[in-house]
Automatic annotation (TrEMBL):
<keyword id="KW-1133">Transmembrane helix</keyword>
<feature type="domain" description="Protein FecR C-terminal">
    <location>
        <begin position="284"/>
        <end position="347"/>
    </location>
</feature>
<keyword id="KW-0812">Transmembrane</keyword>
<keyword id="KW-0472">Membrane</keyword>
<feature type="domain" description="FecR protein">
    <location>
        <begin position="120"/>
        <end position="203"/>
    </location>
</feature>
<dbReference type="InterPro" id="IPR006860">
    <property type="entry name" value="FecR"/>
</dbReference>
<dbReference type="InterPro" id="IPR012373">
    <property type="entry name" value="Ferrdict_sens_TM"/>
</dbReference>
<dbReference type="Pfam" id="PF04773">
    <property type="entry name" value="FecR"/>
</dbReference>
<protein>
    <submittedName>
        <fullName>FecR family protein</fullName>
    </submittedName>
</protein>
<dbReference type="GO" id="GO:0016989">
    <property type="term" value="F:sigma factor antagonist activity"/>
</dbReference>
<dbReference type="InterPro" id="IPR032508">
    <property type="entry name" value="FecR_C"/>
</dbReference>
<dbReference type="Pfam" id="PF16344">
    <property type="entry name" value="FecR_C"/>
</dbReference>
<feature type="transmembrane region" description="Helical">
    <location>
        <begin position="88"/>
        <end position="107"/>
    </location>
</feature>
Length: 349
């Protein structure tokens, strides 16, 4: 039997049956928690706080077509038009839920107005930038990233849109902080997390460092509640013709979400957020994965002359090295040759 005597609000919130109780979607859960609350009056204040958190975080979990379209079109600077309905199917292995690696519940969908985005922060290739938002929250933007703030940010809402990668340290407020990407929406109150959503990559990620977040794929679906140290990876349903040649061989029949823990390097650095410390952490990754990181970090274009080279695997840490120094170091692990001409790098056997 679970001992809930020392539970805090967040502990109740990540319980799936408690979520069903708050949503009113399962009679057994409603009966159980109604009885539990009556039998534990000393916890009523904490449970009431958990219910409030649920309402704030789940809020109006509606279809995001209009807002996501505004997000996409705002980067392209073209007129907003209705987006055709589409569904993103996703799955999470049941064993992950049993182990407590994620909680999923469902909410009713309602229509929402199109958001307008007024303020923009942007980084170029090879640039990283720290931004302080009007509410006191801070965001570190990685290379080739764009962050847009809703015109009513810190007034009626705290809504931002991200293309690229950002590390968020959100100041606590009664207004939920919402991060939207082209693939999913994240809701938080006060916490630290990393979001990676580059349009040219086949996955999008959200990594929770501390606090509590909920995440929902666009156009409906399940809401996932994350606990600290957990990471969501969403595999996009991308047309093969839009992917680089090396990635077209990856046959993904539908987007899938996996939930896991973030990775730690030997010095306990979180691999997913090492870039905030101006570090490149490579942990047992193949050259094809590393290529994407190096291209954005150094503003270069890398090509391989052999598919075999793409499979070379490396583990390494880089701080302020040049691209030449990085390649020289990788050569100590696997044998390959490289040629640098301006921003073009050719790697061969």
């Amino acid at each position: 039997m679970i001992d809930r005597s020392k539970f805090e609000a967040e502990d109740f919130l990540i319980d799936a049956t408690f979520q069903h109780y708050c949503a009113g979607t399962d009679q057994l859960s409603i009966d159980y928690w109604t009885k539990y609350i009556s039998q534990h009056p000393e916890q009523q204040k904490t449970i009431a706080e958990a219910e409030k958190l649920y309402r704030l975080l789940s809020g109006n979990k509606s279809k995001l077509n209009e807002r996501i379209l505004a997000f996409q079109q705002s980067f392209e600077q073209v007129k907003v038009v209705p987006l055709k309905s589409r569904r993103i199917w996703w799955s999470v292995a049941a064993v992950l839920l049993v182990l407590g690696l994620g909680s999923i519940f469902f909410a009713e969908e309602k229509s929402v107005p199109v958001a307008v985005y007024a303020q923009t922060y942007q980084t170029k290739a090879g640039e990283r930038k720290k931004v302080t938002l009007p509410d006191g929250s801070t965001v570190w933007l990685n290379s080739k990233s764009i962050l847009k703030l809703d015109e009513n940010f810190n007034e009626s809402n705290r809504l931002v849109l991200l293309q690229g990668e950002g590390y968020f340290d959100v100041k606590h407020s009664k207004k939920p902080f919402k991060v939207q990407t082209s693939e999913f929406e994240i809701n938080v109150l006060g916490t630290a997390f990393n979001v990676k959503a580059y349009p040219d990559e086949i996955t999008s990620e959200a990594t929770l460092i501390r606090g509590l977040i909920t995440m929902q794929p666009v156009n409906g679906g399940g809401i996932i509640t994350l606990k600290p140290s957990q990471k969501i990876t969403l595999y996009k349903k991308t047309a093969a013709t839009t992917l680089p040649q090396q990635k077209r061989q990856l046959k993904i029949s539908h987007p899938e979400i996996t939930i896991d823990h973030y990775q730690l390097a030997r010095d306990s650095t979180v691999v997913e957020t090492a870039w905030v410390q101006n570090k490149i952490e490579i942990l047992d990754q193949d050259f094809l994965e590393i290529k994407t990181i190096l291209e954005k970090w150094y503003n270069v274009k890398i090509t391989f002359t052999s598919p075999e080279i793409e499979k070379y695997r490396f583990t390494a840490t880089f701080n302020n090295e040049t691209i030449k120094e990085v390649l020289d170091a990788l050569q100590q692990v696997e044998k390959f040759n490289y040629e640098i001409k301006g921003d073009q790098i050719k790697i061969s056997k």
